[in-house]
Amino acid sequence: MKTYIKANQPWWRIDLREIWEYRDLLRMLVRRDLTAVYKQTLLGPLWFIIQPLVTTVIFTIIFGQVAKVPTDGIPQFIFYMSGTVLWNYFSGCMTQAGNSLVGNMHVLTKVYFPRLVMPLSSVVTNLAHLALNFTMFLGFYLFFLFARDTAMVPQWSLLAFPLLVLQCALLGLALGLWIAGLTTKYRDLSFALPFLTQVWMFMTPIVWPASQVQNPALQWLLWLNPMAFVVECGRWMFTGAGTLSWAVGGLSVGMTAILLATGLLLFNRVQRNFVDTI
Amino acid sequence: MSEPAISVRGLSKRYHLGTIGRHTLADEFHYLWCRLRGRDPFQELLGVGDRRRRLSPEERQEWFWALRDASFDVQPGEVVGVIGRNGAGKSTLLKLLTRITEPTSGEAVIDGRVASLLEVGTGFHPELTGRENIYMNGTILGMKKREIDAKLDEIVAFSEIEPFIDTPVKRYSSGMYVRLAFSVAAHLDPEILLVDEVLAVGDAAFQKKCLGKMGDVARAGRTVLFVSHNMAGVKMLCSTGLFVEGGRVSEKMPVDEAVERYMASVVEEGQQVPVAQRTDRRGSGRVRIVGLDMVFEEARQGWTARVEYVSDQDRWKQAALRMTIKRSSGEVLTRLDSTLMPELPDDLPASGRATIELSPDVQFAPGDYLIDIWCQSGQEMLDRVGDACVFSVPDRVPFDWKGKSGSKAAWLVRQRWRVESR
């Protein structure tokens, strides 16, 4: 086995086989993140249920009861929770992957392994949190579906829900790679990030349905946001309510692919020398 | 000759100095704004000179070559010591070979399974148990889970902390932590090992065990590149050495020669920086050594070491003031130890002056000598300065001898001869 160390390696070269070689490390990083978070906490994993639950309750009270924002005729509670759960997965992946270089500095300056393992592990870790959230959502969903009289109709396309989760994960990873690449050099970005995430959330149909956007210019703006389709489509799979088209789906998948490709390239460019600029 | 295990050609690394950097987006926008107006952003920031002329990077002193044009080969099974003073470029060389960062120019080829150890316990998480951290640390260092499974018992046994293996490491003492960390590292089993001074950890007994393990690795025909300040360790483990100074790496040479060059450069530096102004010290600093010199007292014809130390404490409990006198080749000649002297109490004044008179019956041979000095309170390290003082012994007639001693001995001993016919 030969290792070649050269100056100015082409920036588009990504050694996927090497990442596969380090799959045990990825598994360990996920385990570390999952166990370390819960140790010495009172409620442990419950925190990951409480947070979206409380958010949903607040949304239901403020946007549903007070502001009376329409929810495409489906129960407000399910409407807000479906959006929140998907958004939380996306923003969790983005934030954690985005912090994976700067936050693991002490390790990355001491030993080499394919840096991409770090953001990848963030996405997998958050998948565990999503599983928790999703189980909770499923409970409420089944309750509303069978115990209450609602207009919700589960769609056959629900079978493709894992694909939607995959898109959500890749999108979170893509943005995370961008952020990880940029924050190594520009630390001020990490201050802006929580704020930008919040702005983005309100620009995504989570507390309001896409059907409310009638202005064609605003519609463009809405669907250019790839998360808009993910949230709207996920909701439609479960309830049959939502505004969707093949064009909108294609645009979202295309945007995801572009963001992921550019994110990978940027990350790959930065990771080779970033320990010098930190 | 077989193919080298490590082959380095023209390896260089240039760093951007951070004085006038582009570290925030605001800086970047300023930079762009200046470029757009055809101004030099660096002059603009400094507010000096002709603002319309662009400075070259060298003029701005923006660049710094941490390593320049290093070329050498390491044969399979060779154990090479890389030595040089702080900031000479040793760590940069190691960082490039371990792929932590990329070279600016040049290349290196490493043929074989590499493991690098820049510290022990990388990736240890305080909340995880000892066992979990073995897996964490092991996979970070490039081991497969299967390999760790197979070696787990051995690793745990070597660390000597078996009863605590399922306790979170945050409850470990620092000694236990280091033991566990080193045992993982010791079981890496690579063909090529790149090591930074990780041996300077743990208590003396464990250090000995670590050095022994390193020796085993070296004897097992592995290729080792060993970066260190510990000249005794380097001489013990390595056959050849590379001397690094000012970013330049020397030719490969016998290890004794490399150590000698290192010592010569230390002697040169030691004559310039007094011990009170040295910043590369270790320890808690509760007692600080501010003065150290070695003088020859003509009156009694003997050497005297004088130490001055200060503290903000009232007492210095379980005081231990120790010195090691070394030849410029790195060999330890002798040790001066306050705790062995029956005339001294257990506690010493917190600030004070110590005078240590060496017997005039034993003299240093001509040459340059170095002193490492440290003070401890029980087991706690208070202050330690390596190569704190340099002194030269002139080439003169010792005692009442008829001439100079021509031998390379370290000591000259007053002696009386009697020769009788049989």
Task: Write structural notes for this entry.
The complex is a heterodimer of chains A (278) and B (422). Chain A contains 12 helices and 1 strand. Chain A is mainly alpha-helical and 278 residues long. Chain A has one domain. The radius of gyration of chain A is 20 Å and the shape is globular. In chain A, 38% of the residues are buried. Chain B is an alpha+beta fold. Chain B has 3 domains: 18-61, no CATH class; 70-269, Rossmann fold (3-Layer(aba) Sandwich); 282-398, abc- transporter (atp binding component) like domain (Coagulation Factor XIII, Chain A, domain 1). Chain B contains 9 helices and 21 strands. Chain B has helices at 25-36, 41-46, 90-97, 130-140, 145-159, 174-186, 204-219, 231-237, 255-270; strands at residues 6-16, 63-74, 79-83, 105-111, 114-117, 192-196, 223-227, 240-245, 248-249, 253-254, 287-297, 302-311, 315-316, 319-327, 332-337, 348-349, 352-357, 362-364, 367-377, 380-393, 411-413. In chain B, the strands form 6 sheets. In chain B, strands 3, 5, 6, 7, 8, 9 and 10 form a 7-stranded mixed sheet that branches. In chain B, strands 15-14-19-20 form a 4-stranded antiparallel sheet. In chain B, strands 2-1-4 form a 3-stranded antiparallel sheet, with helices on one face. Mean pLDDT of chain B is 83; it is low at 47-51. Classes of the chains: A mainly alpha (278), B alpha+beta (422). The A-B interface holds A 1-9, 22, 24-25, 27-28, 31-32, 35-36, 39-40, 106-113, 185-189, 272-273, 275-277 and B 11-12, 15-16, 22-26, 28, 95-114, 116, 118-119, 122-123, 125, 127-128, 132, 135-136, 139-145, 168. Strand 1 of chain A pairs antiparallel with strand 4 of chain B, so a sheet runs across the interface.
